[in-house]
Amino acid sequence: MNAHSWLARVGTIALPVVIAFAVALLLLQLADAPPFEALGLIWEGSVGSAAKISDTLSAWVPLTLAAAGLVVTFAAGLWNIGVEGQIVAGAVAATWVARELPGPAAVLITAMLLAGIVGGALWALLAGLLKTRGGVNEIFGGLGLDFVASGLAIYLIIGPWKREGVASTSGTDLFRPEAWMPTVGRAQFAVIPILLTVGAVVLVYVLMRGTRFGLRLKAVGKNPRSAHLLGISTERYTLAAFLLCGGLAGLAGAILVSGVFHKLVPSVSGGYGFLGILVVLLAGYRAAWIAPISFFFAAVAVGSTQLSLRLDLDSSLGGVLQGVLVLLVILLGGWRARRTRRRMVLMGPERLMEPEGP
Amino acid sequence: MSLELQDIHKSFGPVRANDGVSLSIEAGTLHGLLGENGAGKSTLMKILSGFISADAGRIALDGTPLTLSSPRDGIRAGIGMLHQDPLVFLPFSVLDNFLIGSGRRLRLDREAGRRALEETAGRFGFSFYPDAPARTLTVGERQQLEIARLLWLGARVLILDEPTTGISATQRTTLFEILRSLAAEGMIVAFVSHKLEEVEELCDRVTVMRRGRVVGESEMPAPAERLVEMMFGRVLVESEPTPPPFGEPVLEVDAITLRERTLTTSELSVSVREGEIVGLAGLEGSGQRMLLRAAAGLLQPESGRVRVRGRDLTRRGYRDFLRAGIHYLPAGRLEEGLVPGLTVAEHVLLARGAMGFFIDGAAAREDARGAIADYAIVGTPESTVESLSGGNQQRLLLAMTPPDARLLLMEHPTRGLDIESADWVWTRLLERRDRGSAIVFASADLDELLRYSDRILVFFSGRAVKALDARETTGEELGHLIGGKELV
Questions:
Q1: Could you report the per-residue pLDDT of B149-200, keeping only the tens digit for each?
Q2: Contact list, A234 vs chain B (CB under 8 Å)
Q3: Exposure winner among A49, B250, B276, B359, fewest CB in 10 A?
Q4: Could you give the C-alpha distances from A175 to A120, A260, B325, in angstroms and in order?
């Protein structure tokens, strides 16, 4: 990336961030809350102490994993709305392993993570096959599969996997301790998930920048017709993108059940998938930017829980902040694209038939 | 009453689609606008109907200057455009389609509309069921509905853009009768076509366009030779040195029928040998593109066989054809050939199809520099393909085609290129031919067809009407055959 486009990217993020904060301040003012104190609380509550940073990181992990996967599907020109269901599928698969597989923690947790990857990947493959073989747009197929996945989780929780004695939507029984993701220190840093997430981001970055696979994937995403004429199997690459994204989303699901909830809960994905889509949009579909942007989102989400505790405000203010931010970024991006496209939009097919100018 | 267009200019990027067009159409005459595809007719008519705005120039109706910035302005000024594909909302009823775009009042008076529809339809002998869904209408009937609607909206000028595409012979006769009676009533009727035959049959006066300019005007009837010459320019054929003798057959197409959208071809057969160049002539959409795509494995024939170098590849996939050394270079370079957003270096990488997971960035740049030097592409390895000019995009496509390709299937290999680029492209193609590659290309440029082909196959509405020896035919004969007329 050269200096100019780097600046432009910072600009497209910084400007909306400033405006989004201004809107948030205004909202706080309207709610009769001291605006700067509130922002201070969000800061305190997200990165104010080692324990808070640990909390923020445990939200950062699934968000970043989902976003990393989505970079791949977006590159292939796919709107993988099904990412949310793929997280759930990974969580279900990992839960099954946690319940069924004996053995020490090292074996069990490895198996759970692998099961999560496989579960998410298969769930994504379903959306992919619906698209390539059934002609179902991935947005609708994915959305449908999201509902199916969450239905499946709820069925398992109140059905076959219900707690001893009572069936409750609060979740299954807690896993046995060997299935709990180990943490480090008093602040309980989940080192393994953090390392896996960093690894996933690096993997996606390298894949998209330095490999033939990534290049072909981009070709399929940007112009499937040309890609086909170049001899690239568009179906194979579409499915591969789904598998990769589903695998990473499923890994996020496995980490959530093993490291955060220690059981399967109905809304295990908690919207990380959808939020991941926003992160990728904000990052301009580039892997390099998703880690910091995810961290910002995670910090706002975790920090704003302080607002309800300390200022008696609703913690959804954090959500408002995120939403305004994304809207502004998309608005600015759309406005910019419109300006550059205006000169091209009327260039009908005739331009190909006319003599060439100087 | 008359419609005056003065010095109309319209450019799309570097392309001058209309380059100082002046035109005057008198009421009561059926005025034809003739020219081959890409001559700038449609652009001019879109400007006239308000669909796009001219960069410069004046339009006046009956002496009153018009400012047209949207089709709505066009309708208000009394200019009605019948588009090539009638603008009919298929799920709506006939009546709703008729009423759409009418009036500015909130309430829709269906009963008054029904009477108006019946009256207008009665005047021209159309018969519609107002409540039938529009999807039950044939293309010709949709056109009739659209004409009725435009007249009811108060059109004083009627523009028809290639109106005979896809309608039956009877409907064509009806359409022509209507146009004659409208002109007789004092309407201004502009009939846009690339079909010589129709203009000869229908029009009182004709304006011929070529390459964005008006190249001639004539009262009708006029000698066909003169119109052909105006449309295509004077065709000069130069003799070429004798090419090497042909080798084994590369492509054998045996009685295939093809179907795509509304066009079904008759049984097509052609055999192409090593070192041979076959040109496909004909108006756009007469079946040439379908034959090329079938020969590339991109369009499955309904019947018949396709053999490549003796192997039967009928109904095999595109990738099998690719492996057999068949390469297809489409006309839509950015739409089907290249991937906008990716760079020259990335294209060269994609085309090489090399194995290995990781990309060696330095080697890739080196490779791209080689291709840029070999094919004289103006650009760098980091240039995105959409930033290249049309000629350089074509050069890149050629660079991406492996040198050992056995058969090149090309659509309009030099369309949109300046003469220098076009010559350069053909020099490279002839080099490949001399090394034993066969070439089949479709073109609208008679000069190109005559100069480079060994044989020319002329297409007319899905049929290969004639196979010509390029050395023994003339531009005039070719022009007539393309227009669907035998030269007597």
A1: 888 888 899 999 888 776 777 888 888 998 998 999 889 999 998 778 888 8
A2: none
A3: A49
A4: 20, 11, 59
Cross-chain residue pair B341–A231, CB shorter than 8 Å: no
How long is chain A?
Answer: 358
Distances (CA, A) of A350 to B150, B165, B340: 26, 18, 18
The interaxial angle of helices A138-158 and A105-132, nearest 10 deg, is 140
Give the pLDDT of residue A351: 34
Higher-confidence residue: B165 or A151? Answer: A151
Q: Among candidates B291, B241, B207, B259, which has minimal Cα distance to B35?
A: B207
Instruction: Kindly compute the dihedral angle of the four CA atoms of residues B167, B171, B172, B176, in this order, to the nearest 10 degrees.
Output: -140
- pTM for the model stands at 0.76
Looking at residue B40, its amino acid is G
Chain CA centroid to CA B233, Å: 18
Alpha-carbon dihedral of residues B185, B190, B194, B196, nearest 10 degrees? 40
What pLDDT, in 10s, does the model give residues A67-103?
999 999 999 999 999 999 999 999 999 999 999 999 8
Three-class SS of B143-180:
HHHHHHHHHHCCCCEEEEECCCCCCCHHHHHHHHHHHH
Distance of alpha carbon B50 from the chain centroid: 22
Bridge pairing between strands B463-469 and B455-460? antiparallel
Q: Tokens standing for A104?
A: 């020490």
Size of interface A-B (CB pairs under 8 A): 127
Contact B90, B135 (CB under 8 A): yes
ipTM summary value = 0.79
Lowest mean pLDDT segment, chosen from A242-246, A341-345, B300-304, B474-478: A341-345
CA distances (Å), origin A120, targets A56, A59, A154, A160, A249:
24, 19, 17, 21, 6
Residue A234: closest CA among chain B residues belongs to which residue?
A: B319
Determine the residue of chain A that is closest to B36 in CA distance: A353
Contacts of B339 in chain A (CB under 8 A): 218-219, 222-223, 226-227
What parts of chain B have a pLDDT lower than 70? 13-15, 37-38, 103-106, 166, 234-243, 353-355, 485-488
* 3-state secondary structure (DSSP) of residue B286: coil
- Prior bond of B221 cis (ω within 30°): yes
> Which of B12, B211, B421 faces A351 most closely, judged by CB atoms?
B12
Please tell me the distance from the alpha carbon of residue B66 to that of residue B74, in angstroms, as a whole number: 9
Taking CA–CA distances from B51, the nearest residue in chain A reads A346
Amino acid at B473: T
**Rounded to an integer, what distance in angstroms lies between the CA atom of residue B82 and that of residue B134?**
17
